[in-house]
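Objective 1.3, modelling of assemblies. Example input:
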Amino acid sequence: QVPLQESGPGLVKPSETLSLTCTVFLGTISDYYWSWIRQSPGKGLEWVGCIYYSGSTNYNPSLKSRVSMSVDTSKNQFSLNLTSVTAADTAVYYCARALPGEVSVFDFWGQGTLVTVSS
Amino acid sequence: DIQMTQSPSTLSASLGDRVTITCRASQDIRSWLAWYQQKPGKAPKLLIYKASSLESGVPSRFSGSGSGTEFTLTISSLQPDDFATYYCQQYSSFPYTFGQGARLDIK
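Predicted structure (tokens):
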């Protein structure tokens, strides 16, 4: 079984909201930082943002006005919302866990989900 | 943002070769650097963190060095499973940023 699994629509229309959920199969979601990272041919790997199990967040300033993340510890899930999407947001989106005691070194990743922004 | 520049972007090597990939940061990141390996259609895999600490389960032929602005990833003796793309990532400050990647091909 994969340690993390992304889920959500693979196609989003321009100007709409991209919503993805990551389900964690690694055990408890508590005591770790969780991130979204995306990869597109044009921009390579881009860190989108992270959330602690307590709900505190940090976002990439390049996306900050459009991105939000949340966590549901009862379901062992965390989520990403990205508003007002354009074609530039087309990418493979990965969810990932940070090493114990770290914020942003990623030891476990989901398999990735391709999100295409197109009408 | 801190810019991460990898060189070379592509390299060709043979089984058993010693290979070195360089990553340069646009400002001092001390030792807050990680290396990942990615194969087509797969998620990146963590190899090295804190510039030189080997992630659990990663073969000892992989090693990392450097501090400040210049870092290297070395593979001591290339194995068939090592042909992939390698990325560096700084985690000294927000936003965390990645290099553009170095693709390692079979010669």
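Chain B touches chain A at residues 1, 34, 36, 42-46, 49, 55, 87, 89, 91, 94-101 (CB under 8 Å).
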